[in-house]
Give the backbone structure.
Amino acid sequence: MKVHKGDLVQAVNGKHASAHKRGRVREVFLEKNRIIVEGMNLRTKHTRGQRGVRQAGIIEIEGTMDASNVMVVCPKCDKAVRVGHTFLPDGSKVRQCRNCQELLDDPDKRWPSQTAESRR
Ligand SMILES: [Zn+2]
């Protein structure tokens, strides 16, 4: 999958596509090829209050959506771009914007944050 957790993505298919809606990827489900993006695919959920825990009523939650319905937004081009792969001199594989060749993964920043997330 080309979309990673924490990426800024833009809707290119489905109900948010016409608005070019953008959001951060909150969760990735690799085996289903589905993702959860902040503010996208909201569903309303009716909840019954649990005393002291949550309010009764209707809340909005983000539903999963197909990963193919979004494209990664390149921070340099500031638009939804195709993502390719390239290799750094040290052999690590990184994603690259096919439009401006900007690297989308900084390995120095990526690895510590992924380790921190996997501990949760
Ligand atoms: Zn770019």
Summary: The CA atoms of residues 56 and 116 lie 34 Å apart. The first strand starts at residue 8 and ends at 11.
